[in-house]
Amino acid sequence: MNIKTILLAFICGITISTAVEADDHAPAEQRPVEIWTCSFNDGKSMKDLDAWYEDFNAFANSMTNSRVSSFIWVPNFASDLDRADVVLTFGFPSLTAMGQTMDEFFGSEGGSALFATYQEILDCSAREIWQVSQRRSVN
């Protein structure tokens, strides 16, 4: 495993900790997190992504399978600062919930339109799905 993979797994675990509730006596179950590593297309910026998230959140709230959390990571220090402008994460309570949410999002006219806008804003060089489990929570 290289240092980027280890660091990404560590950050991913920290990032979704607010979305995962754990018992103080046992590790939490693993939860899937989808990770998109992206750069802004020419003429696009965080302002465009923020506007997209407003539309995405409104649409997600209307979905039957809306149990998805999302974070934007912006690199402040990384081994390769040119690798990406942002990393977006989408966390789900289970693989089943992830599949249901993705089916509903990508299988709908509204979700497809949102994804087309997403692609106008971002050029994503990587898309991964990781299983994460919380090991420590700070209250």
Poorly predicted ranges: 1-27
Distance between the termini: 31 Å
Number of strands: 4
Which class do the helix and strand fractions yield? alpha+beta
Kindly estimate the percentage of residues that lie in beta strands according to DSSP: 15-25%
Total helices: the number is 4
Shape category: globular
**Helix coverage percent of residues?**
25-40%
Describe the largest sheet: 4 strands, antiparallel
Mean pLDDT, nearest integer? 83
Please give a quick description of this structure:
40% of the residues lie in helices and 23% in strands. By secondary structure, the chain is of the alpha+beta class.
Question: What report would you give on this structure?
Answer:
The protein has 139 residues and is of the alpha+beta class. 40% of the residues lie in helices and 23% in strands. The protein has helices spanning 3-15, 46-62, 95-106, 109-121, and strands at residues 31-40, 69-73, 86-91, 122-132. Helix 2 runs antiparallel to helix 4. It starts with a helix and ends in a 7-residue tail after the last strand. Mean pLDDT is 83; it is low at 1-27.
What does the secondary structure layout of this molecule look like, with pairings?
Layout: H1 3-15, E1 31-40, H2 46-62, E2 69-73, E3 86-91, H3 95-106, H4 109-121, E4 122-132
Antiparallel strand pairs: 1-3, 1-4, 2-3
Helix pairs in contact: 2-4
